[in-house]
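Milestone 3.1: sequence recovery, worked example.
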């Protein structure tokens, strides 16, 4: 395989935070970009997620605790991790592979990788800000994790100990019920203990991703909505051609496939065999009497809450099923029932922006970042729940790799051909 030359023009499939970050960092290196997306900017999981830039909580998804739920619990629509009964062979293959990685030894190995990227992730956001992306990140002070008991709290503290043993960094203070409610008065009587995490951030995902898109456009990039890529055609002599389902096409020197949970269909012809499965998350917004100024996390319930300027987003659930399945109202109600005892002053029946989106999950919990068997076809995806946290860093690493710059050694763990 011959090495690809420095591309003058790169086409990027996907206008979420990973694809747009890739476009922005390629532009930093003088590359012309065309971004295509079947919906448009922030059309899927980049829109409705919690928006956390929280290295303390950016951990490998396959973990021993997942298996503790048991099969019966995972078949319950109210479970934080839900797998509807299925005969889908591909999904069953993914679930078997995922279960094989839910071991303590694998989690510790993967955590060492996450510890390394977590140390770099916020710096990539700072580069975007320094380069003119107008929407800013917000310091989460305090970033609160709330619990119904001290025993529940110590489960997360124990996880932090493992994180630190793997080289990660986390600073926190234990709080009793009165202390955590003094920091966040909207917390209700169901909260009896907590943690205050330090040095975490958050964003308003829709606003940030649209601001990033504006920056790409301001620099001369092109963003094409309604372009549903049906195939990637690769030629050493003619470059790469993207074909759409409406017979349109885009030709470039190279392509980056950053199409989220739909990555497999386009990347498989180029040797990418790792399964990428939709791990669907749900969210909605509410209007508390007083909107919290910072994120609140309920680890036991796996519910993440974030202030988004004029509203409060409540998000959660991991649902392994097809990305095009309709929103399941039972999953929204499960989030409401989990969060209701933990807050006061929220009318849960006045929900808005009910949403479901597909987070791209891999069996080993590590993303796919880099070149395929073709030096002109690259992939950037499979981040699971951490596309927002790691999206800009991913874009920077892909841009460095494609333009011959030095790339952090950690990228070897994300080989798409593994």
């Amino acid at each position: 395989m011959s090495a690809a030359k420095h591309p003058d023009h790169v086409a990027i499939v996907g206008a979420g935070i990973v694809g747009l970050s890739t476009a922005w960092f390629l532009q930093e290196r003088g590359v012309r970009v065309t971004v295509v997306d079947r919906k448009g900017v922030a059309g899927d999981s980049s829109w409705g997620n919690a928006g956390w830039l929280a290295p303390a909580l950016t951990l490998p998804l396959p973990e021993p605790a997942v298996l503790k739920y048991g099969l019966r619990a995972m078949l319950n629509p109210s479970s934080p991790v839900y797998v509807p009964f299925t005969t889908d062979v591909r999904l069953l293959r993914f679930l078997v592979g995922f279960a094989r990685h839910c071991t303590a030894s694998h989690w510790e190995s993967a955590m060492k990788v996450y510890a390394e990227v977590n140390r770099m992730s916020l710096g990539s956001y700072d580069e975007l800000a320094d380069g003119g992306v107008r929407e800013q990140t917000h310091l989460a002070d305090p970033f609160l994790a709330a619990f119904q008991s001290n025993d529940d709290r110590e489960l997360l503290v124990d996880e932090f100990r493992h994180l630190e043993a793997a080289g990660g960094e986390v600073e926190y203070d234990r709080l009793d019920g009165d202390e955590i409610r003094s920091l966040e008065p909207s917390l209700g009587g169901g909260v009896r203990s907590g943690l205050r995490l330090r040095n975490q951030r958050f964003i308003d995902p829709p606003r940030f991703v649209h601001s990033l898109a504006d920056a790409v456009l301001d620099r001369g990039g092109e963003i094409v909505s309604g372009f549903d890529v049906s195939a990637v055609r690769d030629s050493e002599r003619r470059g790469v051609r993207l074909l759409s389902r409406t017979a349109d096409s885009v030709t470039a020197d190279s392509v980056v496939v950053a199409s989220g949970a739909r990555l497999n269909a386009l990347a498989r012809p180029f040797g990418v065999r790792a399964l990428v499965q939709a791990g669907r998350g749900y969210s909605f917004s509410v209007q508390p009497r007083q909107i919290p100024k910072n994120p609140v996390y309920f680890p036991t319930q796996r519910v993440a809450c974030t202030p988004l300027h004029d509203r409060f987003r409540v998000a959660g659930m991991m649902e392994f099923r097809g990305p095009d399945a309709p929103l399941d109202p039972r999953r929204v109600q499960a989030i409401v029932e989990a969060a209701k005892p933990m807050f006061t002053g929220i009318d849960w029946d006045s929900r808005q922006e009910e949403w479901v989106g597909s987070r791209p999950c891999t069996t080993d919990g590590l993303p796919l970042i880099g070149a395929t068997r073709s030096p002109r076809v690259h992939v950037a995806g499979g981040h699971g729940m951490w596309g927002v946290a790691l999206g800009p860093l991913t874009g920077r690493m892909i841009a460095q790799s494609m333009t011959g710059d030095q790339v952090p050694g950690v990228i070897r763990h994300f080989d798409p051909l593994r």
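Residues 9-414 form a domain with the FAD/NAD(P)-binding domain fold (CATH 3.50.50.60). The first strand starts at residue 9 and ends at 13.
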